[in-house]
Amino acid sequence: MKTRRDLVSETEEKPFYSGSDLLNLVYAELRQVAEVRLSREAPGNTLQPTALVHEAYLRLTEGKNKDQWQNEKHFFGAACIAMRRILVERGRAKKTLRRGGGAQRVPLEELEADTNPDLELVLTINELLEAFEKRHPRKARLVELRFFAGLTIVEAAAILQISVSMADQDWRFSRAWLRVAMEQAPPQTPLKNKPEERT
User: Fold this and answer.
1) CA 42, CA 198: separation in Å to the nearest integer?
2) What confidence tier does 14 reach under pLDDT thresholds 50, 70, 90?
3) One domain for residues 80 and 109
4) What are the tens digits of pLDDT across the range 38-95?
5) pLDDT digits (tens, 9 = 90+) for 122-178
6) HEC string for the chain
7) Which residue range is the domain that position 135 belongs to?
8) Which of 84, 105, 149, 158 would be 33's cystine partner, CB 3.0–4.6 Å?
């Protein structure tokens, strides 16, 4: 299993990494995010955190996406978005079954889904956060959990092990910084969304 040091040493020779390399580095964090997301699901949900992380990984490593990751943060962001989409798709499928009078469970692998999250947006935010992280590592991590994983302030604060009030202050500061960075980004940069104000 490769470590962060191994990957850093390969940077000059290998500018992009495979999902299999990076999954080992962020797996624990992704599973923690999956647990939080699944805790919001309605009673009767049978999807487990491990299965959600693995399904997101499979979506991100299909075909041309296999070796396109700049670093672990780039992969983490894309995986969080993929997990969010999987849960949305499952929710829609369950509603469709209820309207049709069915009572069968829909296996995850049988759902038709968009298997390509907005990787351009993930890459853009990742690039903006690189400079931000050098001075504000905790705040950058908060942005990842809020923007990529879709966690609330309370959920993100729990993962970061800081108070909710501190997380709220960090989020306000980070959003202001990102807004300025986005406005100053080149016109061709595909900025389609801004960090949501979910609380």
Assistant:
1) 20
2) low
3) yes
4) 888 777 778 899 999 999 999 888 866 666 788 888 888 889 888 888 887 887 777 6
5) 667 777 888 899 999 999 989 888 887 888 899 899 989 999 999 999 999 998 998
6) CCCHHHHHHCCCCCCCECHHHHHHHHHHHHHHHHHHHHHCCCCCCCCCHHHHHHHHHHHHCCHHHCCCECCHHHHHHHHHHHHHHHHHHHHHHHHHHHHCCCCCCCCHHHCCCCCCCCHHHHHHHHHHHHHHHHHCHHHHHHHHHHHHCCCCHHHHHHHHCCCHHHHHHHHHHHHHHHHHHHHHCCCCCCCCCCCCCCC
7) 118-199
8) 149
Longest dimension (CA), the chain: 57
What's the pTM?
Answer: 0.61
Q: Return the CATH number at 160.
A: 1.10.10
